[in-house]
Amino acid sequence: MILTSVIVSAGAPTLWHDARMRRIADRLVRALADVAAFFWFRSVEVSGLDRMPAHGPVLIVANHGGGFVDPALLTSVLPRMPRYLAMASLWRYVITRPFLALAGAIPVHRAEDGATAGNMDTFAECHRVLREGGVIAIFPEGRASDSPHLLPVKTGAARIALGARAAGAGGLSILPVGLMYEDKASARSRAYVRIGPPLDLDAAIRATAPGVSIDDRDRDAVEVLTEAIAARLSLATLDMADAAQLASLEHAAEIALRAAEGHGPGLGETRDLAGRLATDPGARDVVAAEGAYREALEAHAVTDRAVAARPEHGFRRIHLTATLATFALLPLAAVGAVVNLLPGVAVHLAGRPQMAPVTRATSKFLTAIALFPVTWVAWRYLGFEDRAHPWWWTLVAGPACGLAALWVADRVRRAWRARLDLRRLAATGPALEELRRRRGTVVAAVEAAIGRRKPA
């Protein structure tokens, strides 16, 4: 009954003020976000989590490249539950309205969508949450985007922060968060959440304007704080002016880390190393070496993974693992494939129409979190009603066997890729030594750039 009233009363401010209702809704939202992130991503890496204050008002500013995936990912990793600011136009859609209501999202009325008079209530609600020591999350670019760079940061975040401070939210911290995706429009890819150093608003104002009363009506203060927010968010997201150079540095970082660790590196350590390389004077040498090596890889249709590894041993190991996993989990995987077939196909079809990647990510993600639970409940009443402990059977056949199907499919794909790499690498013949030489040049350039040159 409580959940029904929360969902039906979309946008009702009174629900946000009911402490008991809010705690129940927050627990449910976090549980849903945890489950969604667990199934949607193959892995999620987080750095800087200790930078989030455990108490007191916090304004989170994050980039917005993943659409509806972004707040779900943030909710699943942050230790404190934020209130999100969202475009008021999202309340028009039936599929998004229940999630917005359940999360206690605060509508933002944009000028391009019509009247902005409702933003007085929006700012007042943000000030109240922050004054009471809560957490507000905003995507200060103003909209989701596929741009490889941050869009210009709007003044809303700065105005909320200064207004909340003037309204009594002392000790406010502004926390920049970078959200990065391996492939945001694909399920079972990787994500990386990078939390930057918080900005202590009181300390910043004391340092720049001691003894001066500042609020959100001070245009100069708003502009200065907006620039500071943009700079910190740029660092958190590893934003670079040259997207091609960033892609090259990320590939070089992955190559070097694979050489050092002997296996595929995580998305987080790859992005972090690329960020370090970008600030080094030797970045040009790294880009040049990576470009020459990449051209050679493309010419022979092989991957760095194949060149770096001992293919025979790697293939045998991966192939054996996939074979054993397939035979051991095949019955469970088959059940999971059957039970989850319809929502799986629906998610695939949701991404088929021509649309921007960020829109595709939102479409597929919302389809998944809406249809998979409905399908499992349907199986509970249509397939397992006559069995003892029907909900236990539902959890095993739906989520658990679904994971088994995904795990088996992933191992089979890896074995197939290893076999293909082995064949292509064998076809390179004498060129293999040249590929390894160019690879070594990339590794040496990275090590020189970060000051970890190996002894001869």
Task: Write up what this structure looks like.
- The chain is of the alpha/beta class.
- 61% of the residues lie in helices and 9% in strands.
- The chain has 18 helices and eight strands.
- The protein has helices at 2-8, 13-17, 19-40, 69-77, 97-102, 119-131, 156-166, 201-208, 219-237, 243-261, 267-278, 283-300, 304-308, 311-339, 341-350, 357-382, 390-428, 431-449; strands at residues 41-47, 58-62, 83-87, 106-108, 135-138, 173-181, 189-195, 199-200.
- Strands 1, 2, 3, 4, 5, 6, 7 and 8 form an eight-stranded mixed beta sheet that branches.
- Helix 10 crosses helix 11.
- The longest helix has 39 residues, at 390-428.
- The chain is flat, with a radius of gyration of 25 Å.
- Mean pLDDT is 88; it is low at 1-16.
